[in-house]
Amino acid sequence: MADSKGKRFFEKLKNKYKLAIFNEQTYQEVLVIRLSRLNVFTIVGASAILLIVLVILLIAFTGLREYIPGYPDANQRLMIVRNAQRWILYLWKLRNAISLLTMFSTLFVVEYLKRLLKILKSSLKMWGLPL
Protein backbone atom coordinates (compact mmCIF):
# COMPACT_ATOMS: atom_id res chain seq x y z
CA MET A 1 0.00 0.00 0.00
CA ALA A 2 2.74 2.45 0.99
CA ASP A 3 4.75 1.39 -2.04
CA SER A 4 1.90 2.27 -4.38
CA LYS A 5 1.44 5.67 -2.70
CA GLY A 6 5.14 6.44 -3.13
CA LYS A 7 5.04 5.23 -6.72
CA ARG A 8 1.99 7.36 -7.44
CA PHE A 9 3.67 10.38 -5.85
CA PHE A 10 6.74 10.05 -8.11
CA GLU A 11 4.52 9.54 -11.14
CA LYS A 12 2.71 12.78 -10.30
CA LEU A 13 6.07 14.52 -10.11
CA LYS A 14 6.89 13.37 -13.62
CA ASN A 15 3.53 14.24 -15.24
CA LYS A 16 3.84 17.05 -17.78
CA TYR A 17 1.73 20.18 -17.55
CA LYS A 18 1.34 23.03 -19.99
CA LEU A 19 1.85 26.63 -18.86
CA ALA A 20 0.49 29.09 -21.42
CA ILE A 21 0.56 32.86 -21.26
CA PHE A 22 -2.01 34.63 -23.42
CA ASN A 23 -2.35 38.19 -24.64
CA GLU A 24 -5.51 39.38 -22.93
CA GLN A 25 -6.78 41.47 -25.81
CA THR A 26 -6.17 39.09 -28.72
CA TYR A 27 -6.17 35.75 -26.84
CA GLN A 28 -3.05 34.84 -28.76
CA GLU A 29 -0.51 32.57 -27.01
CA VAL A 30 2.55 34.62 -26.09
CA LEU A 31 4.51 31.87 -24.29
CA VAL A 32 3.97 28.15 -23.87
CA ILE A 33 6.09 26.03 -21.49
CA ARG A 34 5.74 22.33 -20.75
CA LEU A 35 6.64 21.65 -17.13
CA SER A 36 6.46 18.86 -14.61
CA ARG A 37 6.21 19.25 -10.85
CA LEU A 38 9.75 17.94 -10.55
CA ASN A 39 11.00 20.68 -12.91
CA VAL A 40 9.21 23.32 -10.86
CA PHE A 41 10.66 22.02 -7.56
CA THR A 42 14.12 21.90 -9.10
CA ILE A 43 13.93 25.42 -10.50
CA VAL A 44 12.53 26.87 -7.26
CA GLY A 45 15.15 25.05 -5.14
CA ALA A 46 18.05 26.08 -7.35
CA SER A 47 16.78 29.68 -7.40
CA ALA A 48 16.51 29.74 -3.60
CA ILE A 49 20.04 28.37 -3.18
CA LEU A 50 21.40 30.86 -5.71
CA LEU A 51 19.62 33.73 -3.96
CA ILE A 52 21.01 32.68 -0.57
CA VAL A 53 24.56 32.43 -1.94
CA LEU A 54 24.28 35.85 -3.60
CA VAL A 55 23.02 37.48 -0.39
CA ILE A 56 25.83 35.89 1.63
CA LEU A 57 28.43 37.09 -0.88
CA LEU A 58 26.89 40.56 -0.95
CA ILE A 59 27.03 40.85 2.83
CA ALA A 60 30.49 39.29 3.15
CA PHE A 61 32.31 41.36 0.54
CA THR A 62 30.65 44.77 0.91
CA GLY A 63 30.14 47.23 3.73
CA LEU A 64 26.65 45.91 4.40
CA ARG A 65 27.99 43.65 7.14
CA GLU A 66 28.48 46.67 9.38
CA TYR A 67 24.71 47.21 9.44
CA ILE A 68 24.11 43.76 10.92
CA PRO A 69 23.47 44.12 14.67
CA GLY A 70 26.31 42.76 16.74
CA TYR A 71 28.82 42.70 13.91
CA PRO A 72 31.88 44.80 14.84
CA ASP A 73 33.09 47.62 12.63
CA ALA A 74 36.75 48.09 11.69
CA ASN A 75 37.71 50.01 14.86
CA GLN A 76 36.09 47.44 17.12
CA ARG A 77 37.84 44.59 15.30
CA LEU A 78 41.17 46.42 15.72
CA MET A 79 40.51 46.86 19.45
CA ILE A 80 39.58 43.17 19.77
CA VAL A 81 42.85 42.13 18.11
CA ARG A 82 44.91 44.50 20.27
CA ASN A 83 43.22 43.26 23.46
CA ALA A 84 43.83 39.66 22.42
CA GLN A 85 47.51 40.43 21.83
CA ARG A 86 47.74 42.11 25.24
CA TRP A 87 46.14 39.09 26.90
CA ILE A 88 48.54 36.73 25.11
CA LEU A 89 51.51 38.80 26.30
CA TYR A 90 50.10 38.95 29.83
CA LEU A 91 49.54 35.18 29.91
CA TRP A 92 53.03 34.56 28.54
CA LYS A 93 54.56 36.73 31.27
CA LEU A 94 52.40 35.02 33.89
CA ARG A 95 53.50 31.59 32.67
CA ASN A 96 57.16 32.62 32.87
CA ALA A 97 56.67 34.02 36.37
CA ILE A 98 54.97 30.82 37.53
CA SER A 99 57.73 28.67 36.06
CA LEU A 100 60.37 30.81 37.83
CA LEU A 101 58.47 30.58 41.12
CA THR A 102 58.16 26.84 40.70
CA MET A 103 61.87 26.52 39.98
CA PHE A 104 62.88 28.66 42.97
CA SER A 105 60.39 27.03 45.31
CA THR A 106 61.68 23.61 44.25
CA LEU A 107 65.25 24.73 44.94
CA PHE A 108 64.24 26.08 48.35
CA VAL A 109 62.40 22.89 49.26
CA VAL A 110 65.38 20.75 48.20
CA GLU A 111 67.76 22.97 50.15
CA TYR A 112 65.45 22.85 53.17
CA LEU A 113 65.28 19.07 53.02
CA LYS A 114 69.07 18.80 52.72
CA ARG A 115 69.56 20.98 55.79
CA LEU A 116 66.89 19.05 57.70
CA LEU A 117 68.61 15.75 56.83
CA LYS A 118 71.95 17.18 57.96
CA ILE A 119 70.40 18.24 61.28
CA LEU A 120 68.81 14.82 61.76
CA LYS A 121 72.08 13.03 61.00
CA SER A 122 73.97 15.19 63.48
CA SER A 123 71.26 14.55 66.09
CA LEU A 124 71.49 10.81 65.53
CA LYS A 125 75.29 10.91 65.85
CA MET A 126 75.00 13.01 69.00
CA TRP A 127 72.68 10.46 70.64
CA GLY A 128 74.84 7.64 69.42
CA LEU A 129 72.18 5.99 67.28
CA PRO A 130 73.13 4.17 64.06
CA LEU A 131 72.24 5.73 60.75
Number of domains: 2
**N- to C-terminal separation?**
95 Å
Question: In what order do the strands lie side by side in the largest sheet?
Answer: 1-2
Low-confidence stretches: none
| Morphology | elongated
- The total count of helices amounts to 3
Strand content: 5-15%
Q: Give helix % range.
A: over 70%
The beta-strand count equals 2
What is the residue-averaged pLDDT? 85
Task: Report on this structure.
- The chain has helices spanning 2-14, 37-61, 74-127; strands spanning 16-22, 29-36.
- It is built from three helices and two strands, in the order H-E-E-H-H.
- The protein has 131 residues and is mainly alpha-helical.
- 70% of the residues lie in helices and 11% in strands.
- A two-stranded antiparallel sheet has the order 1-2.
- It has two domains: 1-71, no CATH class; 72-131.
Task: Give a quick set of tags describing it.
mainly alpha, two-stranded antiparallel sheet, elongated, 131 residues, 2 strands, 2 domains
Give a quick summary of the entry.
A hairpin with a 6-residue loop joins strand 1 (16-22) and strand 2. This protein folds into two domains: 1-71, no CATH class; 72-131. It has helices at 2-14, 37-61, 74-127, and strands at residues 16-22, 29-36.
